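for the writeup, i need someone to sanity check this before i put it in the appendix. the sequnce is what the collaborator sent (i think, or maybe the updated version? ugh). structure was predicted straight from it, no edits. if anything looks off just tell me and ill rerun, i have time this weekend
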Amino acid sequence: MGRIMPMKTIMVPIVAARSKLCSLLKQVESGVQICLTSHGEPKALTIPFPKQVSPWREDMADDPPRYGDLQSPVMEKWE
């Protein structure tokens, strides 16, 4: 089993981040965390957006006789 490596974190002053936002976002896309600082204090953390995964809801219950129809009540239009 592989090891999980910690993300690299870069501290960047907000003033500097304004002028190089595009390059910082490219670094974030590659897995780097960027901590934005103001007067040396951390103010915000940018992390890569999680990849989209399939929805957790199943089309059909794994045991319909046991659970009944779970989909129809959720999909009905509200009045």
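Strands lie at 9-13, 33-38, 41-46. The chain has a mean pLDDT of 79.
thx in advance!!
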